[in-house]
Structure formats: structure tokens, C-alpha cells
Amino acid sequence: MPTTLLDDRALISVSGPDAEHLLQNIITTDLDQLAAGEARPGALLTPQGKILFDFLISRDGENVLLIECRADIADDFVRRLMLYRLRAKAEIKKLDQKPVRVSWEGDSSASQTDSMPEGALRDRRFAEPTKVWRAYGEDAVGDAENCDGWERFRIVNGIAESGPDYALSDVFPHDVLLDQNGGVGFRKGCYVGQEVVSRMQHRGTARRRLLVATAHADLPPPGTDILAGGRSVGTLGSSAGCSAIAIARIDKVKAAMDAGLPILAGDAALSLAIPAWASFTFPADAPAAEDA
Fold first, then answer.
1. What integer pLDDT is reported at residue 144 of this predicted model?
2. Which of 16, 91, 104, 108 has the highest CB neighbour count under 10 A?
3. Strand pairing report for 263-265 and 121-123
4. Is the separation of the CB atoms in 155 and 212 below 8 Å?
5. Which tens digits make up the pLDDT trace of 175-210?
6. What is the pLDDT of residue 157?
């Protein structure tokens, strides 16, 4: 089983009798659906519904929740959570920096196992049959030699992360498929930015979506415009070899494909596909190519 250590992640502990109630009222994840032994994606949004912080959240015993996020945003994240704490009986603190171990399996072949590594959490961003586990603290023992393999695996599975794939405060949860992978609870009560996100969901107005880009050559750096007919339809995220994350307007991409227009990032011709695990589709009635 491939394994790597990530040294650019941090852990934030939120503990106490009011910890879960506090977080349930401010983050997108529905903690009523968070089981022991799993890590679910989520975000803290701006009031306008854009992602201010992205993370994975898990349970660590009674009245303790662990938030895994980028190390470079952890201090700001703690300060923001403290603003919401008010009189809640909850302690919020960043834990000592330790690497995160990630292990993964790409399919359900007979050579693989359904058993979870000891002390690990199932990363629920990845749908069956793909299996990814994360481990923290003393359980985070592994090799650091497979970091490139992990990035490639994440990218080809269409899993975006802030920093390499998008800028914080620049995208809605629907843009990076948090509505598809359990990162948004549409049946829970209010949380910061909930009104905007719920409106996008119920009106079906999400048109900017994460797609997996492939090419026959190495791809240009993150942030490169994706062009169709000379007009921007999206932006390239991180890449590994000939595969990359793309965040693009699916109506404009569909119009370009229907018109037979090349879709380019720099000099590389792209094929754009919806991740296999996602439930949305390209719109049936895309705008005319000349309006793209």
C-alpha cells in the first residue's frame, strides 16, 4: 500500500462540552453524520458563502474534534474560531506540529484489503472503491518517498485543496465539489454563509465546477487560464505529469466541446472530464460557443 508523510499540515483541537455545538453552528460539515474512524471535508465560509478555510474534521474521543488543515493557515484559523467561541465551553488550540501519514488504494483488486491501518481514519473525500487513510501523532509512521505519488493520486481522483488548486476567499463550496463529497450538510441548521450555499443548491445555479484535465504533454503552472476560442473558461490548478485539477465553467466547456473548439492551457490541449464519483453532469443546453 503506497504511503507518504505530509509535513505541511497542522492539527487543531476543539474540545469541551460545547465543542461540537460550536462547530456545528459555524462550519459546513454536518457533524451529526461524522462517525468515529473517519475524516470528513468541510469549510468555514465568509458570510458571502466563499471558502475562508478548508479542512478535514474527525473525532478524537468524547467531546474532542480534530481539524486538519494547511499548516500555513492554522494560526489564522485558530484566531477565527476564537472569535466565534464567545461563552461556549470549548478549548481551541493548535497541536504541536507532526506529520500526517496518508495511505491509499486505487481500486478493489484482490491484492488489496478492506482493513483499515491501525489508528488511521478513512478519508471520506474519496468514494468507493478508492480507499484513503490518514493517521496523526504516534500513528503517523511511514515513508516520505511517495509524496509525488500521492499528489498524482489526489489529482486524478479530482480532489482539490486550497493553495495549489484555488485561493481562499475566491471559491464557493460547489466550485470545488464540497456539495458532492459530504463537505456540506444541506439538512443541518444555519452556519456561516449557509444562505448563499443553500440558494445555489436549491436553484441549481452552480456552473463553476472542478474538472479533471488531461493532456498529452506536461501542463503549465497553477493559475494558468484555460481558454476556448480565445476566451477564458476556467483556471488550471495543480498538476502531476499530464493530469491536473481544473476549475471551470461547465456550461462554457460544454459549448466549446459541442462546437469542436480546442480547449487550451498555455500550449497544451486539454480534455476535461467530470470526476467519476461526482453526480452532476454537463448542462444539456450550453450557451452558444461565440458567447463562451
1. 58
2. 104
3. unpaired
4. yes
5. 999 999 999 999 998 999 999 999 999 998 899 999
6. 97
Residue 231 DSSP SS3: strand
Residues 135 and 222 reside in one and the same domain: no
Give the pLDDT confidence score for residue 291 in this predicted structure.
45
- Neighbour tally for 216: CB within 10 Å: 9
Same domain, 10 and 148: yes
Q: Is the pLDDT of residue 292 over 50?
A: no
State how far the Cα of 9 lies from the Cα of 143, in Å rounded to an integer. 16
Tell me how far apart the alpha carbons of residues 246 and 279 are, in angstroms, rounded to a whole number.
17
Q: Three-state DSSP class for 75?
A: helix
Q: Please, are residues 123 and 207 in contact by the beta-carbon 8 Å criterion?
A: no
- Buried b / exposed e along 240-265 (16+ C-beta atoms within 10 A): bebbbbbbbbbbbbbbbbeeebebbb
Can you give the residue range of the structural domain that contains 230?
A: 207-291
- Mean pLDDT for all residues in the chain: 92
Cα pseudo-dihedral 19, 21, 23, 28, rounded to 10: 150
**Alpha helix stretches (DSSP H) within 4-142:** 19-24, 74-85
Model confidence, pTM: 0.92
The model's pLDDT over 117-173, given as tens digits with 9 standing for 90+, comes to 677 999 999 999 999 999 998 666 655 566 789 999 999 999 999 999 999 999 999
Residues in the chain: 292
Rounded Cα–Cα distance for residues 23 and 31 (Å): 8
- The whole-angstrom separation of Cα 150 and Cα 163 is 16
66 touches 121 (CB < 8 A): no
Does any domain span residue 199? Answer: no
Q: Which residue in 53, 257, 256, 237 sits closest to 156, CA to CA?
A: 237
